[in-house]
Design goal:
single chain, six-stranded antiparallel sheet, 8% helix, 28% strand
Length: 289
């Protein structure tokens, strides 16, 4: 077996392989998927000398632990967390050299939700439809990591960023999502549209890679009934029968029958990936671009 690989010692609550996704396949019923926090995925790749689209690990809340079979340079970013190599503290947000056989431990996030772990050479699982991303909704791509799994690594470039640390945005204490009215905003009363952009919400613990669910005031319908299924886009704010908005994230379905009241600007969705349950949330009307 090749030594260009690492073994999973502790998979964590949910650790998946992600790159920048597989856009362009919605007509086949395949969502984009990919890293929920693309700027961080690009950053950790840059730190270890990878191209921006190399596959990384995305952890959820409690990190993971892996043991590489060859010396490897790694970088951990996203949610701040403790990092150790062979039991000794190592930098977060900077390249770290891990010897062959040493245990790399990514600990529980101190704040935020998702950490990103890049290996020089990238995680080299087989691509599906041009992407190595794990898609939890469709099941495409590699499954979430499990203890004992062995994942291949690509060939390193031999160059990496020589920095002590790099600035990264802090996870949001309050999540502010800029929205434009969606294609079915006329299904809601004028009062509901005011509620959406003036009242406070919170991030629900039921959120996942498919969608960010909210807790807060329900939006009142102006029309009854349901729509035939229609296309859904990244950032769509769909309103199910309970009236609480749901923001579609990377693994969202490509069609849906609940009305879309608004659409979140894509630039704001990385912060949504790091918003813990209970984080205050405001939808604000987007000004001109």
């Amino acid at each position: 077996m090749t030594d260009r690989a690492f073994a999973v010692v502790r998979a964590g609550a949910l650790t998946t392989v992600q790159d920048l996704g597989r856009p362009g396949h919605a007509h086949l019923g395949v969502p984009r998927s990919g890293a929920l926090d693309p700027p961080t995925a690009r950053l950790v790749n840059r730190l270890v000398g990878n191209p921006p689209g190399a596959a990384v690990l995305e952890t959820t809340l409690d990190g993971c632990a892996v043991r590489p079979r060859r010396p490897v340079t790694v970088a951990v970013g996203g949610a701040p967390c403790p990092v150790t190599v062979a039991g000794r503290p190592a930098p977060w947000g900077a390249p770290v050299r891990v010897p062959a056989g040493a245990l790399l431990e990514i600990g529980t996030a101190l704040c935020g939700v998702r950490c990103y772990v890049a290996f020089d050479g990238g995680v080299a699982v087989d691509p599906v439809l041009g992407s190595r991303s794990s898609d939890l909704l469709s099941g495409l791509g590699p499954p979430p990591l499990v203890d004992g799994a062995v994942l291949p690594l690509g060939s390193p470039s031999g160059t990496y960023a020589r920095v002590d640390t790099v600035p990264q945005p802090a996870p949001p204490r309050e999540l502010v999502l800029r929205v434009s009215l969606g294609p079915r905003s006329d299904w809601f009363t004028p009062a509901a549209l005011r509620t959406l952009t003036t009242r406070a919400y919170r991030v629900s613990a039921a959120s996942n890679r498919i969608g960010l669910r909210t807790e807060g005031p329900a939006l009142e319908r102006a029309r009854e009934g349901e729509l035939p299924s229609e296309g859904m886009v990244l950032g769509a704010v769909q309103v199910p029968p309970d009236g609480r908005p749901v923001v579609f994230l990377a693994d969202h379905p490509t069609t849906g029958g609940y009305p879309v009241v608004a659409v979140v600007r894509e630039a704001d969705l990385a912060a949504a990936a790091q918003a813990r349950p209970g984080t205050p949330l405001r939808f604000v009307a987007a000004g001109p671009r």
